[in-house]
Amino acid sequence: MSTEAKVWGVFVGEAGNQLETFNTMAGPFPPEPGTEGYVAIGWPAIGDMRLYAGNYADYVEKFRVVYPKNDERTFKTAANMPWNFAFKMKDGDWVISPSSTAGFLLAGKIQGEYIPNFHGKKSLPKGGVDFVHLRKVKWLYVVADKDPRYAKLHRIGLLTVVQPDLSSSELQVILNGQV
């Protein structure tokens, strides 16, 4: 079994427009490398994901009640995004968060475990009320849309939470401009 960190893509908000909101608590956008911030996703009706830890079947049953889909494939794809965000994403994994709206792609490492934020304890900026599932991130790279690295990384998929076909070593080679 490989111990290499995984790479995740997280699009925060509609068309990525929440990237600026969640990048950092009190700093400029884009954040300086080394800044701690968050990636955050919605699906508030499912509640605190910790309630489902270790019980995917129970989670799927409850997800179906609040987010029903006619097509089973579409349903499973939607249900797997919050599940992966809370339970498959691990401390030390890489996260890429692109936003064509902001013109930047942020890349960093997940810090710690899943954080529920249903009562605003993290005091996220205004506009973040529906984004209740959080992961803390230490941002290590800021890539502007004019940078050649942006073109290699921003098309990681169309889902809110995705695991692109990219290893952490390949990601680091691209981020360090060694391609």
Question: If you had to describe this structure to a student in words, what would you say it looks like?
Answer:
By secondary structure, this protein is α+β, with helices and mostly antiparallel strands. The chain has one domain. Helix content is 26%, strand content 24%. It is built from five helices and six strands. Strands 2-5-4-3-1-6 form a six-stranded mixed β-sheet. The longest helix is centred in the middle third of the chain and has 17 residues.
Give a quick summary of the entry.
The chain is α+β, with helices and mostly antiparallel strands and 179 residues long. The protein contains five helices and six strands; from the N terminus they run E-H-E-H-H-E-E-E-H-E-H. Strands 2-5-4-3-1-6 form a six-stranded mixed beta sheet.
Q: State the total count of DSSP E strands.
A: 6
Query: Mean of residue pLDDT?
Result: 85
Counted by DSSP, the helix tally is: 5
Q: Output the structural class.
A: alpha+beta
Structurally, the number of domains stands at 1
Strand order of the largest sheet: 2-5-4-3-1-6
Order of helices and strands: EHEHHEEEHEH
Shape: globular
What's the gyration radius in Å? 16 Å
Q: Give the % helix.
A: 25-40%
Note the gap between the termini: 28 Å
Largest sheet: 6 strands, mixed
Proportion of residues in extended strands: 15-25%
* Contiguous uncertain segments of 5+ residues: none
